[in-house]
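ugh ok fine here u go
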Amino acid sequence: MSGSIPFYQKHHRHYDRGYRSRETQSAISQYQQSSSTYSSHSSKSSKGIRAATYTALGEGGLSPQRAKPTYLAMDKENQIIGYVVPIFRGSHEFQSGLSDTEEARAKESAGYLARRDLFASGVESERIEHKSHRTVMRESAERISLSKRIHENEEYHKRLNEDSLMHTPEFVIKPRSHTVWEKQCVRLHCTISGWPEPRVVWYKNNVSIDPMAKPGKYKVESSYSVHSLEIDKCDFDDTAQYRVSAMNSKGETSAFASVVVKRFKGEVDESLPSPRLQSRHFGFKVPCLEYGVKFETHIVEKFGVSFGREGETLSFGCSVIIYPALQRFQPEIEWYRDDKLLVPSKWVQMHWSGDRATLTLSHLNKEDEGLYTLRVITKSGFETHSAYVFVRDADAEVAGAPGAPLDVQSLDANKDYVIVTWKQPAVDGGSPILGYFVDRCEVGTTHWSQCNDTPVKFARFPVTGLVEGRSYVFRVRAVNKAGMSHPSRVSEPVAAMDPADRTRKGPSAPWTGQIIVTEEEPVEGVVPGRPRDLSVIEATKNYVVLSWKPPGDKGHEGVMYYVEKCVSGTDSWQRVNTEIPVKSPRFALFDLAEGKSYRFRVRCCNSAGVGEPSEPTEATTVGDKLDIPSAPGRVVPTRNTDTSVVVSWEASRGAKELVGYYIESSIAGSNSWEPCNNKPVKCTRFICHGLTTDESYVFRVRAINAAGISEFSQESEAIKVKAAIASPTPPYGITVLECVRDSMVLAWKQPTFIGGADITGYFVDYREVIGGVPGKWHEANIKAVSDRAYRVSELKENMLYQFQVRAANMAGVGIPSLPSETFKCEEWTIAVPGPPHDLQVQEVRKDSLVLLWKAPVYQGRDPVNGYYIDIKEADADFEMWRGVNEKATDKTFMKIKDLKEGESYVFRVRAQNKAGVGKASDPTEPVDAVTKPGTAEIVVNVDDDGVISLNFECSNLTADSKFVWSKNYMEMTEPERMTLETKGSKSKAIFKTPSEEDLGIYSCFVTHTDGASASYTLSEETLKDLLKISHEHKFPIIPLKTELAVELLEKGRVRFWLQAEKISANGKVEYVFNDNVIHQGEKYKMNFDKNTGVIEMFMESLGKEDEGTFTFQLQDGKATNQSSLVLIGDVFKQLQKESEFQKKEWIRKQGPHFVEYLGYEVTPECCVRLKCKVANMKKDSVALWYKDGREIKVNEKLDFSEGVLTLEITQISKKDAGIYEVVLKDDRGKDTSTLNLTDQGFKDLMNQVFSVIANSSTPLKIQSTEEGIRLYSFVSYYNDELHVTWHHKDAAIAFTERIKSGVVGEQLWLQISEPTEKDKGKYAIEFFDGKGGLRRTVELAGQAFDDAFAEFQRLKAAAIAERNRARVAGGLPDVVTIQEGKSLNLTCNISGDPVPEVTWLKNEREMVSNDHYILKFESGKFASFTITSVNTSDSGKYSILVKNKYGTESGDFTVSVFLPDEEPGRKK
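structure:
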């Protein structure tokens, strides 16, 4: 190694000289030349200098004479202008091969310098008193040479021990922020050192970037410790804060950069120069302001109070109108929450479309609750709009669990601990919160670990056991006896490191491109003094936090601290941080015994040594010093709107470190409390939204700090939710209805907002206008007028006047309207009438509405005789007015139909008289043709007393609402023919004596609502129907579901019954027989179920005296009815007979009995199964079978299972005919069932058997035989009694010798011998089963006949050949054993026509007859074979072969000859 480079370069292996500018390279080259000259001059003494230096190190350690320099160059204003390179006058190469002593001293020097650098890090160098220039230069050269040798020796040993190379990641070059236009690309890059090689992750708004998720959008590269993120074709959504995180086993570090993407509304002309831009918050960019233009900003379509739930996404916004609209100008848009400026993040997204600003809150948490404000800024000023956003708790995973904590923050982070704070939730789930669990998660992982084993109640907790250099996030969960809450939103990441290190690792100084060369002057180290102002700033039962100030005489190096503790009353001091001193003047102590008192003190230390201790603190007892706040004072609610209440209260007295207040509400008397806010508010006034109109509520408040939540305040007084009363807004639309010489009649429209109370009247003012100059206002009326029309008198003719109107209610008189147009007071002389006025709209529905108006004040020459109504769409041009009615109406109301749903309309009215049509009225306000939710109609009702009434219900009443009934749209204040009643939200108009005088249109309008109204037309036909129903109600009849009926029950009991539709508890019934009332007794049992309306009477049996008429007479209040049943003659006798039978049946069923009597069934196998079903059997019950009076023996097939007795008869025949009987008996009784299977019964049984056989038959098939053609069918079972008929061409076949039928097994066949052409046709077999029978057919014709006939000819010829072919009939043995010398004679029968030829063979060779072999064939039937005097040569295989023209056959035998002295059978 040669030369020396600055510290910020030599610590990074990737350093390249290419970083230097040309000027820098020139300066360094000159510097090195001068250094080499000095080096050669002093090389002779370098060894002595080095030895002397090491000697000094070995003797007692060299005290450092200067602090570690900052290497930053400052100008006069302390601005960083570059970096400083220390000057040295010589350079010495490190010589390898140091002696052991020198190597040990070098290691000790390296350790010393490492410790010194640790203490002196970040401290600016201070100069000492001046020495001569020559002395300073010499000492500087010696110091640099020594430092270089020590550094190189240290590097050498680092290579020997790789562990010493490991260090946390560090940013050599951090990414810088960029501002770009849309569609441009941006590249963020940084240089990172660290060992092991750090893992680098890029984040956008704290969300990791996955390049694979959006291919082509992001490109991440890493090469030689240079890491980059490239974003392709940036759009507005890429505006964000980007973070790069580097992590290895030694720790983690991060750096941030912002990317802002600018865009304009509209197209940008590329030929124009790029506009100058100003940065705006969260990425909205605004071109430079247009000078000389005054902008008017209007915020419309404003967002209101919003409610969300944790985990949901909520969006809201406003439309913004800016005039004038400049194409390149966009305002600055800012969003605030609780007066704090919001910036885009993972949880907050902002969008500006050019005319609408939108804020989206992703995954709501209670931290998002608050007052949101939109600020639109132009050069002319700004406009704002605010509304509150409430966030409800998400549904708990366990019923009764508390809400999640909120606002988790990390404070006082140090190397191994972090103090986590949070705010308690407003909802405890119905039981007190037992405490909180704190979880931590290392950044870059997803694993959460719990920090405390037992829940803590204090809302601050120190988390220990952290790994230095790593970053963590935290969350908190609340727990009560029901279970655990959802976790809170995670905190911001925090690094576990010393606060002083965190300060030093802040933003790096900018690179200025300059290297300023200065000289360093050594200084001597000084042992630091005592720390100052030591105090205990926080003490809980879990930890104590100390704070102090650095000493005044701390030397020129950085200092570190040792903390010591001592139990009060003793003088035994114990050091707390024994291993590593802390750098921050703030320290937290853990593991102190709760309830004990301690004193604390601090010592400073640096490379020069450890200083004296500070003054000890006062005795501090370990325990919570913060008390739970006291309950807030008096709570006062006041009205605000119809869904909100303003709640104010007295602050909690003596509360320390108050976090805020929670407010709860409850419907008065319910004792069910709901939170009004889920995020504490610090003020003592809050608006509770989301309340129910006209409901009474009470409120209570409690305070909160880190120690816990206070008791509840006293409940407030109940307050009804109702809009606060205010004076009305000004009326508008002042017009003149009539004008005479000294007076004018004015009309105006009702204010848009009446202030929450009825308008009590109006006040009119007027003033003269002379020469265009208005005069002074004068009162036209001292007493308020209730109508919206008034005649102003005592005016001057031909003078010009202006008017203004003020509305008044119980809150006072409102501000006056704008001055009207200027009207001239002159008498009207026109013939046509003036305009109608006071137009009102009622009964608005999706396709219709009712328009009301008042007659014109000025009638014209003749009285008004009709009106015309005009209509147009609200946004249509004036020319689009069109008439509704072609014929004038004489009424002052009209129902307008056929409207288009959702369309907005305006209306006007014109009056006419004989002279013509007058001026149109002022148009109405726009009316939307929609049916509002909850709209109700008038319902006509007839009560039980026959009273007819009209009923109307309104669901959105207010406290001041009133029902106004009208007939033909004329209000009925005190109607003579009706009675008006109102209770709660319902009102009714009751007819006293309804008649034709009451025909008309009845309407009801509800004041102080959004136009709730309806009407009902009472026509003549409707009135008749209502009067009929009324009569039925006045003289009612009890309706019956069923008339009187009779039925038989078990035991033959008789039940008379009927059922009424509806009958009350006061209903009565009388039972009448033959005009005589009968009562409950032994003979009659009555029952009356008033819930079901069933009326019953029971009789055990019927006698002759019970023949007659039974009547039930009903009465329920004034309603009556009756029903009768006549039981006489045959009807009575049949009922009586049936009753007696049912009684006998009941007696029979008391013992073993038949449920199903004896019957039979035929199985598919043609078995006859006799069966019956029995019940009420016992173990000792007996079932006996009989046939013709003879008991069937047990060995016959008899079965009893599952209450069924069966007897199977297989292959039934005539012998099985007879009378079958089954007898059941035991000690309880006897029952018998008989089945007659004789004569017709047996015939029916056999017919069913035949039917089963017929259905089992297979289709007819054709088979050829040697005799002819055979037709056949198979059945599953054949019975000799089965009657079968064969048909040919639908005629029964007469059987002959040539045509026969028969049965073989289960095959039924028809044989046609020697078939001819006449035998062709359709054949059928018919099975007879006593009913329709079953027929199977086959067609023997065409190809079927030809194939069958050909097969017959073939089989016939084959049969002839088989009968006539040559055959060896028998007589030949298989083996003949004979003694030599004997004679052998064999004979066999031969058959065949014609007579076959006979040939004898020996060993496959033909034989001829001679003296030794005599071969004969006699009579054409007998063939003989004789061997005279056999010898051994005659042994062999012999064959006879016979053949004629039909075939050939052979017979084989073997001859074995043996000698007399040999055993028989032994071959020769």
